[in-house]
Design brief:
The complex is a heterodimer of chains A (about 140) and B (about 150). Chain A is α+β, with helices and mostly antiparallel strands. Chain A has a domain of about 100 residues: Hotdog Thioesterase (Thiol Ester Dehydrase, Chain A). Chain A has four helices and six strands; from the N terminus they run E-H-H-H-H-E-E-E-E-E. The chains are: A alpha+beta (about 140), B alpha+beta (about 150). Chain A: This is Acyl dehydratase.
């Protein structure tokens, strides 16, 4: 099958362009949902007492949930999840999810580098919770060829 | 007990094949706030050139999970999972995962490093389809905290 034409072209991009911004409201429900969908049932993601017993201030989001949602604004911008050919992050800080207030994670996606020959854009993500970044070196390579 | 440095270079037997279900892709997509119709609607996916719904970029972790369980269960590995923190994660795709794929993952420990009393274990899971063709490689670095 022939893939649909990309809705973006690398030649239209400049390093530093902000291509997408989004914010996500996480609740404890989000964590339970992700636990079930992913099979990661580590209780530090749903039980405050267990999280506190290992020295955390309370329940935190799965790092893989933060990684998973942070790329979604890039997917929407690219038009097809298949265009994300490489995605990496470093987990630098936890996202604590309060039982009543939840947590808000914000994502800013910028063009970090362009490979004009291959038609690939590297999109760098700044992912923030409570005023601090929670992911380091968060980079998605997007095939726009 | 500390991480056994002899784990470096070890290749594990492939885990049992994982059949990617359409409803699992949809469920995972909802869980990571993925709203693209290509993640949810087979017609939209086909219109974009795919055979069925496409999994979000981080879905490969579901397939990778059984390989990390192998690593943590390795009798001479010395990895105490209560001390494990996920350091970093990468997915490198040759093609996207779509519903209907039967995927087989094979784990290799590519590096063990010590850093300030902690061990950094890099585990690479190579995921192939039913024909043996490469789909995605999932690389995790696990930080195993040392005794305090």
């Amino acid at each position: 099958m022939i893939p649909a034409a990309p809705i973006r072209s690398v030649t239209d991009l400049t390093v530093g362009d902000v291509v997408a911004e989004a914010s996500f409201a996480l609740t404890r429900d989000s964590l339970v949902h992700y636990a079930g969908a992913s099979g990661d049932f580590n209780p530090i993601h749903y039980r405050d007492d267990i999280a506190q017993s290992v020295g955390l201030s309370g329940v935190l989001a799965h790092g893989m949930l933060t990684m998973g949602l942070a790329v979604q604004p890039v997917v929407d911008w690219a038009g097809d999840p298949a265009r994300v050919i490489d995605y990496q992050v470093r987990f630098t800080r936890p996202v604590f999810v309060d039982a009543t207030d939840g947590a808000t994670v914000t994502v800013v996606a910028k063009v970090g580098a362009l490979d004009l020959e291959a038609g690939v854009a590297r999109i760098d993500l700044t992912v923030t919770f409570n005023g601090s970044t929670v992911l380091g070196k968060a980079q998605a390579r997007v095939n726009l060829a | 007990m500390s991480v056994n440095p002899e784990l470096q270079g070890r290749v594990f037997p492939p885990v049992a094949p994982y059949l990617v279900g359409r409803e699992k892709v949809r469920e995972f997509s909802r869980a990571v706030f993925a709203t693209s119709p290509i993640n949810h609607d087979p017609e939209a996916a086909r219109a974009a050139g795919h055979t069925d719904v496409v999994a979000p970029p981080t879905f490969a972790v579901v397939v990778q999970e059984a390989t990390l369980a192998q690593l943590l269960a390795e009798p001479d590995g010395g990895i105490d999972f209560t001390r494990v923190v996920h350091g970093d994660q990468r997915f490198s795709y040759t093609r996207p995962i779509v519903a209907g794929d039967e995927l087989t993952a094979t784990l290799a420990v590519t590096s063990i490093k010590s850093l300030g009393g902690h061990s950094m274990v890099t585990a690479e899971s190579t995921i192939v389809d039913a024909s043996g063709a490469h789909v995605v490689t999932a690389v995790s670095t696990l930080v195993v905290r040392g005794d305090e």
